Amino acid sequence: MSVETFSGGWKMRLELAKLLLQNHALMLLDEPTNHLDIESIIWLEGFLIERNATLIVVSHDIEFLNRVTNRTIEISLGRIYDHMGNYSKFIEWRKDVKEKQIQSKKNQDKKIAETKQLIEKFRAKASKAAFAQSLIKKMNKMDRIEVDEDDTRSMHFRFPKTERAGQKIVTAKALSKSYDDNLVLNEIDLELLRGEKIAFVGQNGQGKSTLVKLITKEIMGKGHIELGHNVQLGYYAQDQTENITDNRTVLKTVEDAAPDNSGNIARKLLGAFMFSGEDVEKKARILSGGERARLAMCQLMLKPINFLVMDEPTNHLDIISKQTLKKALKDFDGTLLVVSHDRAFLEGLVEKTYEFRDSKLIEYLGGIEYFLEKRKVDSMREVEQRSKEKLAKKKGGKNDHQIRKENDKQARKKQNRIKKLEADIGALETEISSQEVDLKDPNKFQDISTDNTFFTAYEDNKKTLEKLMKEWEGLIE
Fold first, then answer.
1. Model pLDDT for residues 435-474, shown as the tens digit of each residue
2. 127, 302, 389, 395: most buried, per Cβ within 10 A?
3. How far apart are CA 349 and CA 330, in angstroms?
4. For position 68, what pLDDT does the model report?
5. Is residue 146 part of a domain?
6. How many whole angstroms separate alpha carbon 114 and alpha carbon 111?
7. DSSP E strands, 251-330
8. Is the domain of 221 the same as that of 137?
């Protein structure tokens, strides 16, 4: 099969595979988990953890970042924030830094106010004029403490109200679909009702996107499926962003999709999706993945929708945009069907869950928390891993060769982890020693004593070193 026939997602997987096969000392990965299913993400995490290479990764997948990284750098409003630790540790550190900045600014503001009162009190007295001038000079030389601003820019939109659909949104009976000899869906019965918010979950390849495409009439299958009375469908496909690649501008793309071709409506909508000023004149083909995702969602708003189908809508979206989309979907008063592996996104959003397993649908009359409780797991990853283990058992137990191979793999993984820990420990010890030298230097200590970030970094380094030493000791025993 020619690579030219592959979708954009599969081409990205191919490029990632080519990169991983090369023995680079430094790897730069930009959103590597996009278009990967959970099983592939778990494999990639293990590969990167074992790999003795420096990794720089751009990602909005929090769980992935927490597993594979030990240093986090955030770029926000022209500033760089750098902290030793994974993403969750970084967020805790940023919160702590912000709280200390706020408190330090309050203390400084109080001191400035008191100084101004003294100046006003003494400046009129000839005997105290020199003292007042001294206070003024001291106050003017004072470095003002500023509290770092947070980048809170995000999409802001609501789905418009539209005509009410009938009670039954989707009715499917004895629905089946095969690809060659692979039976993906077997005799499926399904009924979706007005106002329901539903999640499709399960291991990749089990038919989630296939059923979505049957519902939206993208493909045909055997059996019966129909949409109900007055259903107005909106569909966000898994590969939706791949269609935004032409030479039209952002504004022209939206204007062409608008029913009345209204430029004013287009500009207003684009503003809600963070396209303003010169951004609307950008060519669609040069947009980033996140910008294309926002543009595709903007197009959804152009037509009335009372049944919204979204297949992996959080791909390419940053963390704030995910939260904004989730809020808009919670407020949506129509029927929602969403395919997602993202537990945090689904929590509190859906009220019914369908699991795809063994060519069948299993209905759970509750949200994602209820589903995970019934499956006796804590995460969507465990759902997919258990499905994989169950499939492996069906195919037969492992032979001695497979067991030895896995044992060897675990041994190599352990040795690589020990090497990585020793390198990290050495680097931390060097950094801590340097910090302690600065603390003992009277000239440097005067500057350091007013720098909250220095002491925070120093304490964090010591805590991280202690944690790494414990892990190292456990591995070499």
1. 888 777 777 777 777 777 887 888 888 889 888 887 877 7
2. 302
3. 6
4. 94
5. no
6. 5
7. 307-311
8. no
Do 134 and 182 belong to one domain?
A: no
Question: Using DSSP, how many helices (H) and how many strands (E) does the chain show?
Answer: 16, 13
Q: Nearest-CA neighbor of 176 among 202, 214, 204, 205? A: 214
Q: Are residues 190 and 289 in the same domain?
A: yes
Instruction: Give mean pLDDT, residues 355-380.
Output: 86
The rounded percent of the chain whose pLDDT value lies above 90 is 29
- pLDDT confidence band for 147 (50 / 70 / 90): confident
Q: What CA–CA distance (Å, rounded) separates 149 from 98?
A: 9
Structure tokens of 291? 């910008």
- Whether 221 and 364 map to the same domain: the answer is yes
Domain count, the chain: 4
Per-residue confidence band for 353, with pLDDT thresholds at 50, 70 and 90: very high
- DSSP-derived letter for residue 6 is S
- Residue 147: inside a domain: no
Going by pLDDT thresholds of 50, 70 and 90, the confidence category of residue 393 is low
Q: Are residues 406 and 383 in the same domain?
A: no
CATH code for the domain of 350: 3.40.50.300
User: Which domain range does residue 312 map to?
Assistant: 168-394
Query: Nearest 5°: phi and psi at 37?
Result: -80, 175
CA separation, residue 391 to residues 202, 357, 379, 382, 396 (Å): 13, 10, 19, 14, 9
Radius of gyration of the chain (CA): 28
Same domain, 369 and 310: yes
Structure tokens, 282: 């950008």
Q: Is residue 292 part of a domain?
A: yes
The pTM of the whole model exceeds 0.70: no
